[in-house]
Amino acid sequence: MAIVLGVVLFAVRRTRAGPVVTALVCAVALAGFVILARPSPSVVRAAAMGAIGLIGLASGRRRAALPALAAGVAVLIVTDPELASDAGFALSVLATSGLLLLAPVWRDGLRRRGCPAGLAEALAVPAAAQVACGPVVAGLSGTISLVAVPANLLAVPAIAPATLFGVTAAVVSPVWPAGAEFFAWLGHWPAQWLVLIATYGALVPAGALPWPGGLTGALLLAVITVGLLIATRRPLIRKLVTVVALGGVLGALPVRLLAPGWPPPGWVVVACAVGQGDAIVLPAGAGSAVVVDAGPEPTLVDHCLRRLGVRRIALFVVSHFHADHIGGVTGVFRGRDVHGVVGPDWAEPPAGRAMVAAAAGRVPLHAVGAGWAYAVGGLRLRVLGPVEPLRGTNSDPNNNSLVLRVEVDGRTVLLPGDAETEEQEDMLDHLGGEAVRADVLKVSHHGSSYQSPRFIDEIRPAVALVSVGLGNDYGHPNPSLMARLARGGARVLRTDQAGDLAAVATGRGLAVVARGDPPAP
Predict the structure, then answer these.
(1) In Å, what is the CA distance from 32 to each residue of 39, 69, 247?
(2) What is the pLDDT of residue 127?
(3) Are residues 158 and 296 in the same domain?
(4) 190 and 315 part of one domain
(5) Which contiguous run of DSSP H or E holds residue 162?
(6) Which of 1, 18, 59, 124 is the most buried (most CB within 10 A)?
(7) Residue 458: which CATH number?
(8) Are 380 and 400 contacting, i.e. CB atoms less than 8 angstroms apart?
(9) pLDDT, tens digit, for every residue of 341-379?
């Protein structure tokens, strides 16, 4: 918003227009930018602050940025109280507060110590924003970033060109499409630079240090941050804090770099912690995977795939089209090459199938059935069921889920989607118990009670992974089912208790590694 209004102000003042005319022209530009960028919380906040500043400009009074921010926040919270709990809105306000309160002081301090003016500004701005936003980010992610400030430094030169070229392209597109295409082409280069910084910054080893998540972690870091800001006014304490902080970072880096990290070596399957839903990942080569289902929400599955370093989806499989399995489909496609999409013949509910087809775009959604097979790298996949369409069951979409048996480097994994008693019994009747036997079982339907005891007993898994949401309203997983699996010798783990779960092949058999930090329900 500052970039756009700054250009408009510069242009209008060159015409020697008065403050009222200048404010009116800027107000039109402000409204147009909000419409163009869409009124997300950060855009609305910036617009409210800008509007208050324009009122001061029109009245001839000197603009005060901090009162403008405070007034803008107050107006927005009164107008829409739900913004008070919006993380994006909070981060936007905190970042701006950091730029107003901390950045000028730090910039001037650096300049007094001989730092060039441009470099002092470039260092102070991202550092101030990071410190102000740190507690909220830590509470949301359970980490403290070590790469945010250098990443922002690298991003600074691209922000203004990307913004101005993009806005220009949008403004001229109705009257000059060829010119709009040219400006969009110019703008894509700085935008691509921002994408590269974000992508590779997220892949930096030990780029984030672990920190307690949730409200406790946020409050803890907030108290520490305020205490340090007050304490470091004294030179001796400032030097002591610098030494301790550098010592802590340098001491933690070797541990983070040498630790095995995530994913663990030799993983054969990962059940992503996506809440009340399924998202299963199978390795298909360096940076590549077969993904089965997408969970209920895009961000959670996207983050799981990023943690695993998955940049290419060799095959995306939809077990069935219920929202808890396909609601996050856009997160699977986000920034990744997807080479194939398959799903069941049973196209209900139709809205779910339409959502997958829309997300897939030019990649066709193929319907497959029992007997269909696929291979990539060291992975072999075969569809076991449904053997034939099942109608009139407790849930026809569930009981027509694709049931997959996967072999990864000599280990077998059974993925039955949400298949319930009817489909499980039908597969046993047609295929026999040997066909469903597997080393690892992704427990069907989040561990619901609609399971065939004979089916569970025939699988004989060494590891059972339950993908389930914390505090769900369905009573999942069923305690009797969990006890039966444990009695059969399976190691049973749940995503609601342990976060992402990986079954790992070792020289002595199968192991299970839990990443921790399960998502909120």
Answers:
(1) 11, 21, 49
(2) 86
(3) no
(4) no
(5) helix 148-172
(6) 124
(7) 3.60.15.10
(8) no
(9) 999 999 889 999 999 999 999 999 999 999 999 999 889
